[in-house]
């Protein structure tokens, strides 16, 4: 068994989190999460009663969370308490990365205690789910469609892998391997096994992580089985419903598009349903495509990728506009004020994008990963690490604010674990190539074959586009180094030890791919000019017509009331932004603000009138824009991403 | 008993329909409705099975329309079939006006036959409701909140009044007086009477019409009782629900704001709930205010009027943005594409506005009456008189079309009777004054006191703002003539027999009020210049920001795909419209089109892209606008009222 993710076949794999020391922009965020968020998450899980449900030494508690209501008014069989194991698992995963970041004996002891509970809770056959062991015993594996059972298993596996990497302790990893063995025993193509899969995807990508960490091929095969089985006829969820005496049509989400099981995965061409589920499925599919070099999956994923990113994605990388299904609706239906755009869905998009890089560097994936990361995902976490957004609208009249906790507390640990594990998203490692997908002050201890390679980035990214990368080697090694050239950048410059490289010649799929014998000590200078861009949306997006959104580097900007006063829709940006300036923002660290000389309609003389032939008077103003992910970190008020523009 | 509405006290009353011969713009519409619509309505009522329910000589039919479903999935006690009497009544009312317009023995025979059915159906005590006599016997007066019982009675009364005016036949009027007497016996403040009122307002204004026609004061007093009782505590609908063994909270519309009984009417300050119900209530209140010179009602109505017209009304005069409650939501919530803006609600607004003129000429009411009439109401009727809109959005992607019939067929007969009775909205008659509220080619036979006065209008209004009014008298009479000076008009000119009148001096509340001894034969020339106006909306209306809507005279304009191609949101109007031209529209008679030199964004190069820094290219185009009420009368396609404007 290998301890880290060293690839043994084709394709690129992410480094394990401890392999990358992150500083700078992300380092500060990691410290905030490690110092504050993780313990907040732990405390809130305790306060919610989650450990009462898990710990077999405590009395079985009352059910705390109400069951959902069906359309006909009757109580459904599902509530959010069913997937508490997954919330606790994400907290353990975040705790693991935090412990790697800095020792914290108190947090480690608390995490070990939870792991002990799970170990004690585990049944002799390996089964492990606190809801179905303690709250609804006897019902295990009877409703994969609704009950999040394999989803919870997946998050526990991810947590176990992370905790092992961070602490070297095997206990939780062994517990989860026993559970994975049980699942492998229950589900599969052989006689007596069930051809099932989960209504809430996650187990697929988790089994790949577990397989990569343990070297156990069965886990990869089982993940592939879940992916391949999904959506086949007769439909497993129909069969399963009849077996438990239920009408398959009694499904609160009506169509299996909700959980992406309406068709076999290779036949799906439209991104549908619950956004987080879709992203986790596609992430798992991409992992399987990498592990099994399965082009049939890659081809399907490319179609889905285009479908999502050219018809259904907010400019923030937020996805899933509708609250009703926490997911997708019609093409180009991207309302700003009512945008659901759950933090978890942006995290899921980052996960999918990073796994699409498993088949090789390609900026169509890495650019979107970066876009979702710096905007629609990071917005979910306040700078102090103590407050959260669940939904991430692109416009607010001033009533949308960060909250302390949520009855469905999936987002806080999800953005926390993503921030803490950002190092693993920055690089890709194959047998002969190292890819730099994301830039940021950091040191990565990677390897090409058996040869260790240290890549050190010095940069103020994302506030500045100049990056210095030094290559550290014990002995000279020949390998390819791939450096992403973001599509948002015009005029990228590249040099190695002062010798300039023609970017146009070196570029392949948006990466400068430099193959040579590296001797160690080389310094690569990459300059990515960060011009201020005014982005227009496809006019099929009704909400954004006549509006632009400002961007600089990977950062999407917004205007806030705290800087500009109320009535942000009175601001009209000039068509020419060449005079826009960049400044710094008090209260928000090194963040770069954009100041634009704009026009503004006077709106103060409308009292008592609804329609009027008088043209609104224009005034000259300077309008300040701040990074979208930082909004609602100062005084509350209006916020606007898509601002009117001169025509 | 007087046969027409001659005022005997203060206040202004509308003339009866036969007193005004209408030609020109409205004359053509009246002919289309009389020639075609009325018989279509009759046929569709027959096809729906309505007469099977009414005719006591036929077998009691099966229930044809499904009951509503409650939020909890159980069937409600209400369906749309319950108020079929009201649909038939509106058809009789429309037929009455049509018979006045031109003899039609077939239609008259059919109408007489329905009246005979109602006469036969009437119970010995005067009660008359086909649903509760034949479909649900024994349940009468047990659920005023939901079952439209007094609402149906009101429409039957209106029909009876109209049929009497049109034909001179008394049978139906007598039937309805007997029913009104029964209702007056059942409801009232005396011991043994019920302090009830209808959940669907209408009876109030109907009783006033019946009282004015018959001279019976009891009907006016009963109308006043219904108005005064509404919203008092203990709440009648609560008491009534308990009496029939139901939980008062089991109400599918949750709050009594839905039917405007949440507070006594004089304490209501916000226009809420179901839009048609609200309008009918306020219309009835205004009638009572006029009949009883009740300033406490007038004061309440003024507050509600401002609330509606400065915060909750579309520029078309459409009201009630939401389909969910067929009514009002939040202030300034006026989405264009999803606008419900039911035809009946605009008709209701016209009815309310016309009755606000009962306390004297005031253009704040007459202007809005005209705005709703020419736009949000008239749009509900196709030019051929055979197709209808139920909801009247202000933007369509090309999928919203006129329909032949509707399961809730309230709008077609409502707009039909409004068009046919337009003459009665044009004038107001008091003891010493005649008011001209609406302009249009017509001859009105009115009276001041006992002296007959004929007012003849010669004009191409609404396409041209020049109006010639001649005063016809038998003998010289001294009276005041009030001529509306619409607020949309700048530079109105007025002369009598060539002698110019200073409009500014003569104006009072937006009317030129000319008091003199009229000798007969005078010709008044009124010139209302119709400049093309670009209207802006209050910026609190989020949907209209950065957009304008074109208007000329009382007509609101829209762009249609048939004239301009698809992608109407790519059109950007210039800030200066002085070069806009007016033209005529093939296929749409004398209607005036507006042609504007505009810019248009090229939208053809967006394929496969969602966001892009490239600014859309602008092209020069001429964009054609047509009257909103005429849209979807030619080839189907997109439609847009609020068009982007240059900034």
Automatic annotation (TrEMBL), chains A, B:
Q: Which domain of life is it from?
A: Bacteria
GO biological processes: carbohydrate metabolic process
Tell me the ranges covered by the Non-reducing end beta-L-arabinofuranosidase-like GH127 C-terminal domain, including all copies.
532-644
| Occurrences of domain Non-reducing end beta-L-arabinofuranosidase-like GH127 catalytic (ranges) | 21-423
Q: Which InterPro entries match?
A: 6-hairpin_glycosidase_sf, Beta-AFase-like, Beta-AFase-like_GH127_C, Beta-AFase-like_GH127_cat, Beta-AFase-like_GH127_middle
**What is the phylogenetic placement of the source species in the record?**
Bacteria, Pseudomonadati, Pseudomonadota, Alphaproteobacteria, Hyphomicrobiales
Please report the stretch or stretches of sequence annotated as the Non-reducing end beta-L-arabinofuranosidase-like GH127 middle domain: 434-530
What Pfam families does the record point to? Beta-AFase-like_GH127_cat (PF07944), Glyco_hydro127C (PF20737), Glyco_hydro127M (PF20736)
Protein name in the entry: Glycoside hydrolase family 127 protein
Q: Supply the SUPFAM superfamilies for this chain.
A: Six-hairpin glycosidases
